[in-house]
Design a protein that fits this description.
The chain has helices at about 15-35, 45-50, 60-65, 70-80, 100-125, 130-145; strands at about 55, 85-90, 95-100. It is mainly alpha-helical and about 150 residues long. The protein has one domain (about 20-145): Orthogonal Bundle (Arc Repressor Mutant, subunit A). Helix 1 crosses helix 5. The longest helix has 25 residues, at about 100-125. The protein is globular and about 55 Å long.
Length: about 150
Amino acid sequence: MLTKELDLNAMENCVCFNLRWVSRAFSQFFVGELRQHGLLPTQTPILGLLAARPEASMAEVSDWLAMDRTTLVRNLRPLERDGLIKVTGKGRGNKVSLSLTTKGRQTLAQFLPDWRMAQQKIIETLGKERWTEILRDLERAALALN
């Protein structure tokens, strides 16, 4: 979408628009590649985090994912409904703990090989070195803006 020269006054070069456009394209790719597992790209990092940390508080998960509580709760509901996670405690002053269930561990184990293949397709498209540079640049920008 980039015009011949980077004219930051041209709407098609809007940083926010282009990051959101690329993000949607990548998200749609992952949804298509991993549809058979019934998980959304916003849910899988939650399962991955809970696999690495057997019990985490809602605040820890929210902070680690840089996701506000409302968005996190929206992503947790179907995971809890489907028996992939267990939520204990109730909010507002009480610690809410999240943990992966046996079904959640099994689902994640079935999901990961296909997720790795989807990751590999993208890395092959971009090149490993280029992806490393992009990730480093995006992280640096995000930290500078916070």
